[in-house]
């Protein structure tokens, strides 16, 4: 439940949360509010804003003072038995516990798939970096072997070639590490949502659990897909040098 005393965004937990979502019963900062309203599942949510907001737990239908017992799949909202008759009679709806369990399983699948995908990409980056740097060392060794048989003037050329390879190595590895860090950051975000998901085991109220699961799913969907760059390669072609 959103706690008015903390006034901290319950999504990013990094700034004040002056915006209260009436449907999700949570506090949002301005940035998280914008992201929330952009999401398809929550684009029609309504907010209260200001320093003195005092949200209360809504475990029942405010209009009919009845417990929520169904979930309307077309309107993406919990409804009471009177709402079914008055506003959702022709809609597709299910018992709220059943819908919550379905979304719970869906969120778990999305988290697991996202984490497997990110871990797989990180493994590719790590392996590619290791292989590439091993190739770089082989090229440097080949250049050194050839350079030993040449005069001092050729030694300077050898040193220049090595420096060129190292500079390319530095830039390419920097690029690979940058992508790797992005993937690890995305994985951390997925782990964070996994922790939030695990914490839902202690939520007994199905309405609040449903809202929390929908929020976790929204956050997971916002983790951007990161493409792995083409792995760099390097090789050395030995040159034939005449005595002259």
From TrEMBL:
Question: Entry's Gene3D superfamilies?
Answer: Classic Zinc Finger (3.30.160.60)
What Pfam families does the entry give? Answer: zf-B_box (PF00643)
Q: Which GO terms describe its molecular function?
A: zinc ion binding
Key word Zinc-finger present in the record? yes
User: Cross-referenced InterPro entries, in alphabetical order?
Assistant: TRIM45/56/19-like, Znf_B-box
Keyword annotations from UniProtKB, A to Z: Coiled coil, Metal-binding, Zinc, Zinc-finger
Q: Which residues form the B box-type domain?
A: 4-50, 56-96
Instruction: Determine the domain of life of the protein's source.
Output: Eukaryota
* Coiled-coil spans in chain: 173-226
What PANTHER family does this protein's entry cite? Answer: BONUS, ISOFORM C-RELATED, MEIOTIC P26, ISOFORM F
Give the protein's recorded name: B box-type domain-containing protein
